[in-house]
Amino acid sequence: GVYTIVTDPNLGGVFIHEAFGHLSEADAIENNRSLQELMKLGMTIGSPILNVVDQGNLPMAPGTYGYDDEGVPAQKSSIIKDGVLVGRIHSRASASILNEEPTGNCRAVDFRFAPLVRMSNIFIEAGDTDPGEMIGSVKDGLYLCGAKGGQTMGDVFTFGAQFGYRIIDGEIGPMVVNINILGNVFETLKNVSAIGN
Question: 151 CB contacts (<8 Å, ≥6 apart)?
Fold first, then answer.
């Protein structure tokens, strides 16, 4: 069925990385006209409370580095600001092709591989809603925890959650397992109604 869901930070992070983050890697966009139309800067693609950044210089985070493999300093790059697509992540080449600025996101696994545009630490910036308030506002939904693999194809995603709970009249109900969620990433981003603090 179709449910309102509240995710824990783990599942929310995997969602924004897999379902949206890969679409913001500019080497996938530079030669794809339909994706360029889908991901046109200045378009409203999310809820007005949604802010997404990729930050390669975030202290102590697992995707942190000083410079990418083209010598561009790691930085904080806004991708979605107040629901509007304001940027993407780049190599020097993709930035040149799309007439944008390099973001320091071109990296290789090691010397045996060519550098590619890849996310560093991508995340949804904290909102102002207490998680208990989010759960309390849901009449019939699910609280989902942990990520258990999944896939994306263009703007469609499918993910598994490790476990979850029914939300019934704003209260945590029975545990549920074997959960798969699927949907359209842009429809989902526009339906974000609260972001945890």
Answer: 18, 157, 158
DSSP letter at 129?
A: B
The runs of H, that is alpha helices, within 16-97 are 33-38, 92-97
Query: In terms of Cα–Cα distance, which of 77, 102, 83, 101 is closest to 42?
Result: 83
What distance in Å separates the CA atoms of residue 13 and residue 18, rounded to the nearest whole number? 9
Predicted model pTM: 0.93
The pair of three-digit structure tokens given for residue 36, joined into one six-digit string? 């360029």
Which residues pair with residue 182 across a beta bridge? 158
- As beta bridge partners, residue 112 has none
> 102: left (phi > 0), else alpha (psi -120 to 50), else beta?
beta
Q: Quick: pLDDT tens for 76-112.
A: 999 999 999 999 999 999 999 999 999 999 999 999 9
Question: Of 13, 3, 50, whose CA–CA distance to 186 is shortest?
Answer: 50
Query: Which among 110, 91, 111, 86 is positioned nearest to 101, based on CA atoms?
Result: 91
User: Within 10 A of 194 (CB to CB), how many other CB atoms are there?
Assistant: 18
